[in-house]
Write a structure and sequence with these properties.
By secondary structure, the protein is mainly alpha-helical. The protein has a single domain, classed as Orthogonal Bundle (Peroxidase, domain 1), CATH 1.10.520. 36% of the residues lie in helices and 6% in strands. The protein has a 3-stranded antiparallel beta sheet. Strands 1-2 form a two-stranded antiparallel sheet. A two-stranded antiparallel sheet has the order 3-9. Strand 7 and strand 8 form a beta hairpin. The protein is globular. It starts with a helix and ends in a 54-residue tail after the last strand. The structure holds protoporphyrin IX containing FE and 2-acetamido-2-deoxy-beta-D-glucopyranose (2 copies). The site of one 2-acetamido-2-deoxy-beta-D-glucopyranose has 3 residues, from helix 9. Residues 100-101, 104, 113, 120 line the site of one 2-acetamido-2-deoxy-beta-D-glucopyranose (NAG).
Length: 362
Amino acid sequence: MIKALLSLAAIAASIQLSNGATLRRVTCPDGNTVSNGACCVLFPVMEDIQTNLFDGGECGEDVHESLRLTFHDAIGFSPALTRQGKFGGGGADGSIIVFNDTETAFHANNGIDDIVDVQKPFIARHNITPGDFIQFAGAVGVSNCPGAPRLEFLLGRPLPKQASPDLLVPEPFDNTTKILARFADVGFSPNEVVALLASHTVAAADHVDPTIPGTPFDSTPEQFDTQFFIETQLKGTLFPGTSGNQGEVMSPLRGEIRLQSDSELARDPRTACEWQSFVNNQNKLQSAFKAAMAKLAVLGQNVRELTDCSEVIPVPKPANSKAHLPAGLNHRDIEQACRTTPFPILPADPGPVTSVAPVPPS
Ligand code: HEM
Ligand SMILES: *[C@@H]1O[C@H](CO)[C@@H](O)[C@H](O)[C@H]1NC(C)=O
Ligand SMILES: *[C@@H]1O[C@H](CO)[C@@H](O)[C@H](O)[C@H]1NC(C)=O
C-alpha cells in the first residue's frame, strides 16, 4: 500500500517536473522508471533471464544461442512466397517456439532446439509473447557482450498463427548469390547482410563439425569486437568436400572454425569491401549492427502497433580488445579481397601462439 502511494507520488512529481511530454516518467511497481508504462512488464523478465538464463550477465553460450534464435525466428518470412499466393511465414513472431515440432526439424535449424527448450519455461512464467521474448532475450543477452551496441527493443508482437515454411533460413553451404537473394527478399541490402554477420563475433558452432562442439568463429567469442572480420580474412583452406563437414572452412587458427558462407562473403566482390570496412572500425560495427538488428527484429510485424521499450535494454560495456592479428601471424597471412582499399595494417598480438579455446557448454 505504502509502495503504491509512493509510486503514485513519484508519477505526480515527474509530471509536475516535466511540464511537457519529453521528460515525463512512469514509475513501475518495482521502482524502475520508464517513459511508457507498458514497458514495466519487461523488468521482471530481464531480472529472471539475467540471473537464470545468462548466469548473472555473461556473454556465453546461452547469449550466443539466444542471438542466433532472433535470426532464425525472424528470417522465417518471405514476401516472395506471399506474392506467389503461398504462406510466407510471420517473421519475428515466435513461431519457432510455438511450432517447435515443425521448425526445429528444419535442416538449417539444427541445434536450435536447445535454446527453444531452455526459453520456453521463461515465457510460461511471464506476461510476454514468444515473439517479444525471443527478441528481448537477444537484445538483453547482447548487452552482456563488451563492445556491443545497445540494441533497440519494440514490444507488442502478437502470437504467431502458423509455422514458418521450410527453406527460408540460410545454410553455410549456400552460395553468396543465394544468400543475398534470400536477404533481399526480406529487404536487406548486401551491406546490411554484412552488418548482420557481425553477430558471428559472439558465436560458435556445435553442429557444423559435431566432432568439435563449441568451436568459435573468432578468437574472442565473449566480446562484440571486430576480430571476426579480421580472422575470416586470413588465408584458409576449404574443408575437403568428402569429409561430411559441408559448409566448413579450416581457419589457420587452431580451435577456430569458419563457415563457408562467411568465407565467401568476405571474398565476394559484392561484399568484400564492406566486410573489410569493419576490420578496425568498432563504431561502425556498432551502428551498422544496431540498425540491421532493428530491422530484423520486426520482420513481418506492424511497427505502428509496437511500443518502443529500447530504454529498458542495458548499456553494454566497451570492448576491451583492440583490433589485432593473432599471435604469430602478419600482414602476409591476410587474403586481400577488396579491390579498391588495402587491408588495414594491424599490430600482431605479441603473446605466444595458442589455440582458441572452445566456448564452454552452458
Ligand atoms: C548467411 C547467413 C547465416 C548463415 C549461413 C549462418 C549460419 C550459422 C551456422 C551454421 C552456425 C553454427 C550453428 C551450430 O553448428 O551450432 C551459426 C551460429 C550462429 N549464428 Fe549464424 N548464420 C547466418 C547469419 C546469422 C545472423 C544474421 C545472425 C544474427 C543476427 C546469426 C547469429 C548466429 C549466432 C549468434 C551463432 C552462434 C550460436 C552459438 O554459439 O551457439 N547468424 N550461424
Ligand atoms: C517442442 O516443445 C515441447 C515442450 O513444449 C517438447 O516437449 C517437444 O519435445 C519439443 N519438440 C521438439 C521437436 O523439440
Ligand atoms: C548458387 O546456388 C544456386 C541455388 O543452389 C544455383 O542455382 C546457382 O547456380 C549457384 N550459383 C553459382 C554462381 O554457383
